[in-house]
Amino acid sequence: MEENKRRRSPKYVLIVSIVLVIAVVLINMFWSWAFGQSYQQMFQRVRSLSKPTVRMEQPRLTAKRPELMLQKTGFIISFNTETNCPNYVAWYLTGSRAKGRNTKRKDLFEGDPAIAKERRIEYYDYNNTRYDRGHMCPSGDNKHNSKAMDDCFLMTNMCPQAHNLNIGAWNDLEQECRRWAKNYSPVAIVCGPIFDKRPYRYVGQRKGHRIAVPDRFFKVVLMNGRVPKAIGFIYPNKDTNKPMRHFAVSVDDVERQTGIDFFYQLDDKVENKIEAVCNPAAWNI
User: How much of the chain is in helix, strand and coil states, percent to nearest 5?
Assistant: First the structure.
């Protein structure tokens, strides 16, 4: 009689089994979701760190001025709609990117479709100005990708630049940056114009499409490896035959003269240390 009381009916056993199965399924779903999300987020974070993007070192303006942010293939432009020049252009240059895929230089300058047509600077706005269409992010840094090569010839990436500076000392610095990228890959680069005079000196004939002529140009380079280091350069917008080290300055100097904070995402101690130093010998120049 007692044995019969302890025996469960088949219906009871079935119900208990179904409840247990449902419980196991729900628990598995919860843990799969919770840990799956965590692992997915972790993977995405690792993946993003393993493939550094320009935005990781996007500078910020500390002096007020117009700014229209433009994301291009491989670089970003902070465009100034008052000067019709970039405030700065920033990109990462890796060793493989510096070597490129031999994508041919296109030499076809075009207005940027991101700018309204009625305000867009076109290639012919530089005609008869005696200034080159000076690349900020150079074509030699964009041979890895045909779209990147196209984007670097957009007029939002240009400034009026003295011809002999463009083909001479500035070009030498661009080539040196590619050498650094091959040796220290990757390096973060930011460059742009400096305007000392107000009102601006403009070129161009079309009303509403005049372009301010920079007085100087800056470039800062960061190698954020095992032993981080950084260096800055400021060149006058004119012919020069002086060696590269003559134009080398600290990143702090460039920040003071441009009103741009460059590598603020770094640890403060690291940032303060490397931005205060100008040591051309550490860069073999």
Answer: 40, 20, 35
Q: How does residue 104 score in pLDDT terms, banded at 50, 70 and 90?
A: confident
Q: What pLDDT does 58 receive?
A: 86
Q: How far apart are CA 217 and CA 158, in angstroms?
A: 12
Burial of 233 (0-12, 13-18, 19+ CB in 10 A): buried
Which among 166, 76, 158, 56 has a CA at the least distance from the CA of 109? 158
User: What pLDDT does residue 12 have?
Assistant: 62
Whether 35 has a pLDDT exceeding 80, the answer reads no
Query: What's the CA gap between 139 and 194, in Å, rounded?
Result: 21
- pLDDT tens per residue, range 181-239: 999 879 999 999 999 988 999 999 999 899 999 999 999 999 988 899 999 999 999 99
| Beta strands, E only, 46-185 | 60-61, 68-72, 75-80, 85-93, 132-135, 158-161
The band of 9, judged by pLDDT with boundaries at 50, 70 and 90, is: low
Closest CA to 82 of 61, 94, 65, 107: 65
Burial class of residue 135, CB neighbours in 10 A (0-12, 13-18, 19+):
buried
Please give the helix or strand (H or E) that residue 30 lies within, else none.
helix 10-50
Give residue 16's pLDDT.
Answer: 63
DSSP count for the chain of H helices, then E strands: 8, 13
- pLDDT of amino acid 55: 46
CB-based contacts of 74: which residues, under 8 Å, 6+ apart?
A: 54, 91, 97, 137, 141, 142, 144, 145, 148, 151
One-letter amino acid for residue 144 of the chain: H
Q: Is 121 exposed, middle or buried (0-12, 13-18, 19+ CB in 10 A)?
A: buried
